[in-house]
């Protein structure tokens, strides 16, 4: 017997008396079935809403992780570029200073040789 039968027995007709009773039980069964269907629909809707919220949360977390990775990559690239530019500029400055010193020494040597 289904679990809702006790409602039927509570609201059942009185029997005898020219066959008058028995109709109330059917109404209660229909009401119980409608209530069960409504509860199932509400539970399914709540589960779907919770699932969608969890999926949105996961998507947001993935986007945050991707943005953090992009920021880290950009910062690393900027640091590498700055370091490379600074090193290249230092090398260029050292080369220019060495060339100037060599040219100055050559000029001094030439002047000394010519004047003597």
UniProtKB/TrEMBL annotation:
Keywords: Membrane, Transmembrane, Transmembrane helix. Residues 35-116 form the ABC transmembrane type-1 domain. It is a multi-pass membrane protein. GO terms for biological process: transmembrane transport. The chain crosses the membrane at residues 26-52, 59-85, 91-114. One of its GO terms (cellular component) is membrane. The keyword Lipid metabolism does not apply. This is ABC transmembrane type-1 domain-containing protein. The lineage of its organism: Eukaryota, Metazoa, Spiralia, Lophotrochozoa, Mollusca.
């Amino acid at each position: 017997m289904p679990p809702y039968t006790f409602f039927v027995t509570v609201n059942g007709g009185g029997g005898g008396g020219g066959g008058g009773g028995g109709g109330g039980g059917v109404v209660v069964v229909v009401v119980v079935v409608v209530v069960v269907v409504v509860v199932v629909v509400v539970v399914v809707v709540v589960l779907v809403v919770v699932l969608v919220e969890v999926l949105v949360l996961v998507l947001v977390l993935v986007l945050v992780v991707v943005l953090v990775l992009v920021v880290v990559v950009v910062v690393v690239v900027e640091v590498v570029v700055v370091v490379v530019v600074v090193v290249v500029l230092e090398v260029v400055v050292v080369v220019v200073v060495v060339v100037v010193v060599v040219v100055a020494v050559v000029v001094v040597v030439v002047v000394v040789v010519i004047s003597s």
